[in-house]
Amino acid sequence: MKKLYITSPLYYVNASPHIGHAYTQIACDTINRFFKMAGFQTYFMTGTDEHGEKVEKAAVKAGYEKGREKDFVDSVVPHFKELWKDLNIKFDFFIRTTDPSHEKTVQKILEIMKSKDDIYKGHYNGWFCTPCETFWTELQVKGKPCPDCGRRLEKIEEANYFFRLSKYQDWLISHIKKNEDFIKPDYRKNEILSFLKNPLEDLCISRPKERMAWGVELPFAPNFVTYVWFDALINYISGMGFLDDEKKFKKFWPADFHIIGKDILRHHAIYWPIMLRSAGLAPPKTIFAHGWWTVKGEKMSKSKGNIVDPRTVIKLYGTDALRYFLLREVTFGLDGTFSEEAFILRFNGDLANDLGNLVNRTLTMVDKYFSGKIPEARAGIKNSSLEGLSRGLKDKATHLRKTLESRISSFDFSGALSAIWEVINKANKYIEESKPWECSRNKNTKNLESIIRNLLETLRIISISIYPFMPVSSQKIWQQLGIKDGIEGASLTETEKWNLLKAGHKTCKDKPLFPRIV
Ligand code: ME8
């Protein structure tokens, strides 16, 4: 069985999650569900990034004394878990960087690197951005604020430990050039390659405890804790059994997909592969950096007060509509603007009009013409125009799988959804063109059976195909088709088959899936 190991970033627990965080999770969950359905043994890991100065400051701000950071993070983590539940994010493991097994792994990796002389003690003289948890050199900032977030930097001059990034620079450049899927999209790969044209500075990987003690202690220097990024990146192997489950680790490592936002690409595409190389481990196969959701052209941030809270959207319009909008509206990789107007347009157009109506019209006809029972799979009249229309619909629906596979494998969620919508639109058009009401009027039962049957088969294929994106609606359509088993047990291969529904089975028409927003 083919395996797939997919990871999300670990979210900082300094504040509650917003639409941007939900976006990464939904993308990971969709890929995970899709490959599971395609027969892969998948493993999706997510979690929380709990150490470092940013979280420590948030703890103090929330009224926790220094030394009680763990109580603070324990109080925040449930908010993340609850939101993932509300968004239907199905992960295999939730890792916290305060898990003892993770901390042990961090220390083990540090020891391996130290024994290879890849870690040394030096003097740090530069700048630090707490909101980004990033070190900057004088040359990079030239008296300006943080190049990433534009906020004020803190000057740091102190003894610290360093990791020899520079030693591996040539190896990394050649690895990126040789492995075209390593950094995606290609324009992000080019950004990293151009960054690597300048010599890499060694990375400062410690903070002295006297200034910042909320972190994993360096095993060879108890007065220091590990720099939060160095600690957090190691989750991808610590949560995969690097120390305690060799069999699992061998099976799933290297990770297939690290899905991240573009702001944390340098950490993932430069620090992380070099850390792995130093520790004698293989780099991940693909790192995909998606864009940002902005509000009126600005990145969402708590301090700007322009956060879109996913819970509010879910309450108003439902989880599936949010999942659909985020993955359909913007090409994965590019930035997108979140607005209620755009959301409502998609909802009323794609969900209520196209998909919702198709389900509703089809099941209404099953009730009206066949007392709610699935008609026999009969061929219509040979060589008729109906036969041509029906073949067109069947071909489009049963060929969908290949398109979905190629688009989702290249992270083109929007393209995958638009391929599904082509089938939905074709089915709606098929109703107009085949005119089942005329067959009913003319008592042409054979053709009427054939039309309704074809529509039901198309709905069956659509409900499997939308499952990775909209698991709740997919299950609802499945149930309306009268299928008792859960949709999560369905396989993608069933979308290539026709006439699988059992004739005579009762359908269960329900209320509209997506009532129009007025
Ligand atoms: O960076 N639009 O955590 P984080 C889209 N702990 N994505 C957004 C976004 C937005 N407006 N805002 C944030 C960290 N994100 C580290 C990761 S991994 C070992 C450590 C995305 O909570 C962001 O790009 O600040 C990132 O991928 C993720 O949310 C977590 O951000």
SSE inventory with pairings:
Elements: E1 3-12, H1 19-37, E2 41-49, H2 53-61, H3 69-86, E3 93-96, H4 100-115, E4 119-129, E5 134-136, H5 138-141, E6 154-163, H6 169-178, E7 183-184, H7 186-195, E8 203-204, E9 206-208, E10 217-218, E11 221-226, H8 228-233, H9 235-238, H10 246-252, E12 257-261, H11 265-278, E13 286-290, E14 293-295, E15 298-299, H12 310-317, H13 319-329, E16 336-337, H14 340-370, H15 385-398, H16 400-409, H17 413-434, H18 436-441, H19 445-466, H20 471-480
Parallel strand pairs: 1-2, 1-12, 2-3, 7-13, 12-13, 14-16
Antiparallel strand pairs: 4-5, 4-6, 6-8, 9-11, 10-11, 14-15
The chain binds ligand ME8.
Residues 9-12, 20-21, 23-24, 49, 232-233, 235, 260-261, 263-264, 292-293, 299-300 line the site of ligand ME8.
